[in-house]
User: Fold PAP2 superfamily protein from Rathayibacter iranicus NCPPB 2253 = VKM Ac-1602.
Amino acid sequence: MAGGSDAARLATEGFSPAVLGVVVPIVVGARVADPPLLGVAWGALAALFVGAVPYLVIRALMRSGRIHGDHHVPDRRERALPIGLALVSIVVGVMLLAALGAPAAVTTFGVVTVAVVVAVGVVNLVWKLSGHAAVAATCAVVVLIAYGPLSLAVTAPIVLWVLWSRVRLGAHTPAQVLAGAATGAALSSAIWTLLP
Assistant:
């Protein structure tokens, strides 16, 4: 079953929250701004605060010994600090995007991410909700809103692959990945509907 484990690791790493947090705001920015290159720049600024800084924080916490597992923080008890610091980074990014006049969709992506990180963080105080699943589903909804229903041909298989990978690697139960995906999809849909 090495092939199954390899495919699971590929999904877990290739579509991790950090990777999606960098790629998706750029993809959304390119769609909503004119010219698209300006949107890419706005998306890259969002990506810095949503994906890159939180990932670097986790790496720093690993080096300092405050996280003992890998960069996916498998021990639920160690998740509060990196989630809290990620939240600070994302909130600062959202405030900066809003202050600089970024396209609404890029700023809204940041707001959606704040809500999902808060939800995952709160649930992880008592139960190991899958952050991978929550972020993958969130990003699928955001891309659906930006690009339309045809985007599901790409994003739906990615979400399913990520969910399968987390269970296959023993990181989560089926209930934890389904709950994560439902949380991400519901929050992103609701917030995107409420904000301009």
